[in-house]
Write a structure and sequence with these properties.
Layout (H helix, E strand, L loop, with lengths): L6 H6 L5 H12 L5 H13 L2 E2 H7 L4 H13 L3 E3 L6 E4 L2 H32 L15 E5 L1 H13 L4 E7 H5 L6 H6 L4 E7 L16 E3 L2 H4 L4 E4 L3 E7 L8 E5 L2 H17 L1 E2 L11 H30 L4
Parallel strand pairs: 5-6, 6-7
Antiparallel strand pairs: 1-3, 2-3, 4-10, 5-8, 7-11, 8-9, 9-10
Length: about 325
Protein backbone atom coordinates (compact mmCIF):
# COMPACT_ATOMS: atom_id res chain seq x y z
CA UNK A 1 0.00 0.00 0.00
CA UNK A 2 1.48 3.36 -1.06
CA UNK A 3 2.09 5.86 1.70
CA UNK A 4 0.76 9.35 0.97
CA UNK A 5 2.84 12.07 2.60
CA UNK A 6 0.85 14.65 4.56
CA UNK A 7 1.42 18.29 3.63
CA UNK A 8 3.67 18.81 6.66
CA UNK A 9 5.95 15.97 5.59
CA UNK A 10 6.07 17.33 2.06
CA UNK A 11 7.31 20.63 3.45
CA UNK A 12 9.74 18.92 5.83
CA UNK A 13 11.26 16.89 3.01
CA UNK A 14 11.27 19.85 0.60
CA UNK A 15 14.71 20.24 -1.06
CA UNK A 16 14.58 23.96 -0.21
CA UNK A 17 15.13 23.03 3.44
CA UNK A 18 18.14 20.84 2.70
CA UNK A 19 20.75 23.40 3.75
CA UNK A 20 19.05 23.87 7.14
CA UNK A 21 18.72 20.12 7.69
CA UNK A 22 22.32 19.57 6.64
CA UNK A 23 23.57 22.10 9.20
CA UNK A 24 21.49 20.47 11.94
CA UNK A 25 22.66 16.98 10.99
CA UNK A 26 26.30 18.12 10.99
CA UNK A 27 25.86 19.44 14.53
CA UNK A 28 24.07 16.30 15.72
CA UNK A 29 26.74 14.09 14.15
CA UNK A 30 29.31 15.67 16.50
CA UNK A 31 27.76 13.48 19.21
CA UNK A 32 28.88 10.37 17.31
CA UNK A 33 25.76 9.77 15.19
CA UNK A 34 26.11 8.76 11.54
CA UNK A 35 24.54 10.86 8.79
CA UNK A 36 21.60 8.45 8.43
CA UNK A 37 21.12 8.29 12.19
CA UNK A 38 21.10 12.09 12.34
CA UNK A 39 18.70 12.27 9.40
CA UNK A 40 16.33 9.74 10.97
CA UNK A 41 16.39 11.49 14.34
CA UNK A 42 15.77 14.90 12.75
CA UNK A 43 12.87 13.58 10.67
CA UNK A 44 11.22 11.81 13.61
CA UNK A 45 11.67 14.81 15.90
CA UNK A 46 9.66 16.96 13.48
CA UNK A 47 7.20 14.48 11.96
CA UNK A 48 6.03 12.68 15.10
CA UNK A 49 5.51 8.88 15.60
CA UNK A 50 6.19 6.72 12.53
CA UNK A 51 6.59 3.03 11.78
CA UNK A 52 9.89 1.68 10.51
CA UNK A 53 8.23 1.07 7.14
CA UNK A 54 7.12 4.69 6.88
CA UNK A 55 10.55 5.98 7.85
CA UNK A 56 12.21 3.67 5.34
CA UNK A 57 10.02 4.87 2.47
CA UNK A 58 9.93 8.55 3.35
CA UNK A 59 13.69 8.79 3.84
CA UNK A 60 14.56 6.32 1.05
CA UNK A 61 16.50 4.09 3.43
CA UNK A 62 16.80 0.29 3.14
CA UNK A 63 14.36 -1.44 5.50
CA UNK A 64 17.07 -3.45 7.29
CA UNK A 65 19.24 -0.38 7.82
CA UNK A 66 16.23 1.55 9.14
CA UNK A 67 15.58 -1.04 11.86
CA UNK A 68 19.27 -1.01 12.75
CA UNK A 69 19.29 2.81 12.97
CA UNK A 70 16.18 2.87 15.17
CA UNK A 71 17.72 0.26 17.46
CA UNK A 72 20.89 2.35 17.83
CA UNK A 73 18.93 5.54 18.52
CA UNK A 74 16.92 3.69 21.18
CA UNK A 75 20.13 2.46 22.81
CA UNK A 76 21.30 6.08 23.02
CA UNK A 77 18.10 6.99 24.84
CA UNK A 78 16.75 9.49 22.30
CA UNK A 79 14.12 7.35 20.52
CA UNK A 80 11.19 5.51 22.13
CA UNK A 81 9.03 2.68 20.68
CA UNK A 82 5.48 1.61 21.58
CA UNK A 83 4.03 -1.91 21.89
CA UNK A 84 1.46 -1.44 19.12
CA UNK A 85 1.29 -3.35 15.86
CA UNK A 86 2.97 -2.16 13.80
CA UNK A 87 5.46 -0.66 16.22
CA UNK A 88 5.79 3.11 16.04
CA UNK A 89 8.83 5.15 16.98
CA UNK A 90 9.19 8.70 18.27
CA UNK A 91 11.95 10.87 19.67
CA UNK A 92 12.15 12.40 23.10
CA UNK A 93 11.84 16.21 23.18
CA UNK A 94 14.77 17.86 21.41
CA UNK A 95 15.93 19.69 24.56
CA UNK A 96 15.99 16.42 26.48
CA UNK A 97 17.67 14.59 23.59
CA UNK A 98 20.51 17.11 23.53
CA UNK A 99 21.02 16.77 27.29
CA UNK A 100 21.09 12.98 26.94
CA UNK A 101 23.65 13.12 24.12
CA UNK A 102 25.84 15.56 26.05
CA UNK A 103 25.69 13.38 29.16
CA UNK A 104 26.53 10.28 27.10
CA UNK A 105 29.62 12.04 25.73
CA UNK A 106 30.61 13.21 29.21
CA UNK A 107 30.41 9.63 30.50
CA UNK A 108 32.44 8.41 27.52
CA UNK A 109 35.15 11.00 28.19
CA UNK A 110 35.28 10.04 31.88
CA UNK A 111 35.71 6.41 30.84
CA UNK A 112 38.52 7.38 28.46
CA UNK A 113 40.29 9.26 31.26
CA UNK A 114 40.04 6.19 33.49
CA UNK A 115 41.27 3.99 30.64
CA UNK A 116 44.27 6.24 30.01
CA UNK A 117 45.45 5.81 33.61
CA UNK A 118 45.06 2.05 33.30
CA UNK A 119 46.95 1.96 29.99
CA UNK A 120 49.83 3.99 31.44
CA UNK A 121 49.99 1.70 34.46
CA UNK A 122 50.16 -1.42 32.28
CA UNK A 123 52.64 0.20 29.88
CA UNK A 124 55.03 0.99 32.74
CA UNK A 125 55.00 -2.70 33.67
CA UNK A 126 56.52 -3.65 30.30
CA UNK A 127 60.32 -3.84 29.77
CA UNK A 128 62.11 -0.69 28.64
CA UNK A 129 63.08 -0.23 24.99
CA UNK A 130 66.05 -2.11 23.58
CA UNK A 131 69.35 -0.40 24.58
CA UNK A 132 71.02 1.35 21.66
CA UNK A 133 67.79 2.04 19.80
CA UNK A 134 67.48 5.80 19.40
CA UNK A 135 64.43 7.76 18.31
CA UNK A 136 64.45 9.21 14.82
CA UNK A 137 64.99 12.96 15.01
CA UNK A 138 64.97 15.60 12.29
CA UNK A 139 62.93 14.10 9.48
CA UNK A 140 59.94 12.69 11.30
CA UNK A 141 56.40 13.44 10.17
CA UNK A 142 52.87 12.61 11.24
CA UNK A 143 49.70 12.78 9.14
CA UNK A 144 46.63 13.95 11.07
CA UNK A 145 43.01 13.71 9.92
CA UNK A 146 39.90 15.33 11.39
CA UNK A 147 39.55 18.70 13.12
CA UNK A 148 39.69 17.21 16.62
CA UNK A 149 42.95 15.35 15.98
CA UNK A 150 44.53 18.40 14.36
CA UNK A 151 43.35 20.74 17.11
CA UNK A 152 44.67 18.35 19.74
CA UNK A 153 48.12 18.36 18.13
CA UNK A 154 48.10 22.16 17.77
CA UNK A 155 47.18 22.59 21.44
CA UNK A 156 49.95 20.20 22.45
CA UNK A 157 52.54 22.13 20.43
CA UNK A 158 51.39 25.54 21.69
CA UNK A 159 51.31 24.48 25.33
CA UNK A 160 54.87 23.09 25.16
CA UNK A 161 56.36 26.03 23.23
CA UNK A 162 59.26 27.82 24.92
CA UNK A 163 60.18 30.80 22.72
CA UNK A 164 58.01 31.63 19.73
CA UNK A 165 54.81 30.72 17.91
CA UNK A 166 54.21 31.79 14.30
CA UNK A 167 50.79 31.26 12.72
CA UNK A 168 49.99 31.90 9.06
CA UNK A 169 46.63 31.40 7.33
CA UNK A 170 43.50 32.76 5.70
CA UNK A 171 40.29 33.84 7.41
CA UNK A 172 38.67 30.58 6.26
CA UNK A 173 41.37 28.53 7.98
CA UNK A 174 41.12 30.48 11.24
CA UNK A 175 37.33 30.32 11.01
CA UNK A 176 37.45 26.53 11.33
CA UNK A 177 38.66 26.94 14.92
CA UNK A 178 36.47 29.89 15.93
CA UNK A 179 34.02 27.74 17.92
CA UNK A 180 36.80 25.83 19.70
CA UNK A 181 39.16 26.85 22.52
CA UNK A 182 41.98 27.49 20.00
CA UNK A 183 41.92 31.29 20.40
CA UNK A 184 41.63 31.05 24.18
CA UNK A 185 44.81 28.96 24.22
CA UNK A 186 46.89 31.25 22.01
CA UNK A 187 45.59 34.32 23.87
CA UNK A 188 47.19 33.04 27.08
CA UNK A 189 50.58 31.95 25.73
CA UNK A 190 53.63 33.34 27.55
CA UNK A 191 55.96 33.20 24.54
CA UNK A 192 56.35 35.56 21.58
CA UNK A 193 53.29 35.21 19.32
CA UNK A 194 52.96 36.44 15.74
CA UNK A 195 49.90 35.86 13.58
CA UNK A 196 49.66 36.58 9.85
CA UNK A 197 46.12 36.37 8.50
CA UNK A 198 44.11 37.44 5.49
CA UNK A 199 40.71 38.78 6.50
CA UNK A 200 38.21 41.51 5.78
CA UNK A 201 36.45 43.98 8.06
CA UNK A 202 33.54 41.53 8.23
CA UNK A 203 35.69 38.79 9.75
CA UNK A 204 37.85 40.85 12.12
CA UNK A 205 35.66 39.53 14.95
CA UNK A 206 37.50 36.21 14.68
CA UNK A 207 40.59 37.85 16.19
CA UNK A 208 38.92 40.30 18.56
CA UNK A 209 40.05 38.51 21.73
CA UNK A 210 43.73 38.68 20.71
CA UNK A 211 46.11 41.61 21.20
CA UNK A 212 46.21 43.63 17.96
CA UNK A 213 49.99 44.13 18.15
CA UNK A 214 50.42 40.37 17.66
CA UNK A 215 48.46 40.27 14.39
CA UNK A 216 49.27 41.50 10.90
CA UNK A 217 47.01 41.38 7.88
CA UNK A 218 48.15 40.33 4.43
CA UNK A 219 46.47 40.40 1.06
CA UNK A 220 44.84 37.06 0.13
CA UNK A 221 46.75 36.90 -3.16
CA UNK A 222 50.02 36.65 -1.26
CA UNK A 223 49.10 33.68 0.87
CA UNK A 224 47.19 31.40 -1.45
CA UNK A 225 45.80 28.44 0.47
CA UNK A 226 48.71 27.91 2.88
CA UNK A 227 48.05 27.47 6.59
CA UNK A 228 50.86 26.60 8.95
CA UNK A 229 52.11 27.00 12.51
CA UNK A 230 55.80 27.04 13.47
CA UNK A 231 56.80 26.32 17.06
CA UNK A 232 60.22 27.49 18.34
CA UNK A 233 61.60 27.04 14.83
CA UNK A 234 61.70 23.31 15.68
CA UNK A 235 58.31 21.93 14.60
CA UNK A 236 55.61 22.85 12.11
CA UNK A 237 52.10 21.71 11.31
CA UNK A 238 50.29 22.71 8.13
CA UNK A 239 47.05 21.88 6.39
CA UNK A 240 47.33 19.46 3.48
CA UNK A 241 43.62 19.32 2.69
CA UNK A 242 40.80 21.63 3.73
CA UNK A 243 37.15 20.63 3.65
CA UNK A 244 33.74 21.67 4.94
CA UNK A 245 33.56 18.27 6.64
CA UNK A 246 35.47 18.41 9.95
CA UNK A 247 36.40 14.74 9.65
CA UNK A 248 37.94 15.21 6.20
CA UNK A 249 40.48 17.92 7.08
CA UNK A 250 44.10 16.74 6.85
CA UNK A 251 47.31 18.22 8.24
CA UNK A 252 50.94 17.21 8.48
CA UNK A 253 53.29 17.70 11.43
CA UNK A 254 57.04 17.52 10.85
CA UNK A 255 60.45 18.42 12.30
CA UNK A 256 62.03 18.76 8.85
CA UNK A 257 64.58 21.58 9.14
CA UNK A 258 64.50 22.22 5.40
CA UNK A 259 60.76 22.80 5.33
CA UNK A 260 60.69 24.74 8.61
CA UNK A 261 63.47 27.10 7.52
CA UNK A 262 61.78 27.70 4.19
CA UNK A 263 58.40 28.45 5.80
CA UNK A 264 60.06 30.65 8.45
CA UNK A 265 61.84 32.74 5.80
CA UNK A 266 58.58 33.28 3.97
CA UNK A 267 56.76 34.14 7.19
CA UNK A 268 59.40 36.70 8.17
CA UNK A 269 59.27 38.28 4.73
CA UNK A 270 55.47 38.58 4.71
CA UNK A 271 55.51 39.87 8.30
CA UNK A 272 57.98 42.60 7.37
CA UNK A 273 55.84 43.72 4.42
CA UNK A 274 52.41 43.51 6.10
CA UNK A 275 50.32 45.93 8.20
CA UNK A 276 49.24 45.51 11.81
CA UNK A 277 45.59 44.75 12.49
CA UNK A 278 44.75 48.33 13.48
CA UNK A 279 46.80 49.99 10.72
CA UNK A 280 45.10 52.19 8.14
CA UNK A 281 43.90 50.33 5.05
CA UNK A 282 45.45 52.96 2.77
CA UNK A 283 48.90 52.60 4.35
CA UNK A 284 51.21 51.47 1.57
CA UNK A 285 54.07 49.33 2.80
CA UNK A 286 55.22 47.52 -0.34
CA UNK A 287 56.68 48.42 -3.68
CA UNK A 288 55.59 46.51 -6.78
CA UNK A 289 59.02 44.89 -6.93
CA UNK A 290 58.88 43.55 -3.36
CA UNK A 291 55.31 42.33 -3.89
CA UNK A 292 56.35 40.38 -6.96
CA UNK A 293 59.27 38.87 -5.04
CA UNK A 294 56.94 37.97 -2.17
CA UNK A 295 54.50 36.17 -4.44
CA UNK A 296 57.35 34.18 -5.99
CA UNK A 297 58.52 33.14 -2.51
CA UNK A 298 55.10 31.86 -1.55
CA UNK A 299 54.64 30.09 -4.87
CA UNK A 300 57.85 28.25 -4.07
CA UNK A 301 56.43 27.31 -0.66
CA UNK A 302 53.30 25.94 -2.30
CA UNK A 303 55.42 23.80 -4.62
CA UNK A 304 57.29 22.42 -1.60
CA UNK A 305 54.02 21.62 0.15
CA UNK A 306 52.57 19.98 -2.97
CA UNK A 307 55.70 17.86 -3.31
CA UNK A 308 55.42 16.82 0.33
CA UNK A 309 51.75 15.95 -0.14
CA UNK A 310 52.67 13.55 -2.97
CA UNK A 311 55.42 12.02 -0.86
CA UNK A 312 53.07 11.46 2.08
CA UNK A 313 50.38 10.07 -0.22
CA UNK A 314 52.82 7.48 -1.56
CA UNK A 315 53.86 6.54 1.98
CA UNK A 316 50.22 6.03 3.00
CA UNK A 317 49.08 4.07 -0.06
CA UNK A 318 52.21 2.04 -0.69
CA UNK A 319 53.66 1.16 -4.11
CA UNK A 320 51.34 0.64 -7.06
CA UNK A 321 50.56 -2.95 -7.79
Amino acid sequence: MEIIKPEFERRLLNPENEYIKKDIMNEISKFGLSQNQSKTFLFLSKSGPKTASQISKLLSLPRTETYHILSQLQSRGIVIADFGKPTKFETVAIEKAIKILVENERIRIDELVDSSDEILGLWNMLPESVPGEEMLIGNRFQVLQGKNSILGKIKQLIQTSKKEILIFGSENDFGKFYHTDFFEIIKNVKVDLKILASFSKKTEYIFEQLASEKIKRFNEIKGGDLFFIIIDNQETIFFMKTSQDDNDIMALWTESKTLINSLKLSFDLVWLKSNYLNASDDLKTETEESLEHLIKELEQEKRIVESLKKHVSKKRTGPNR
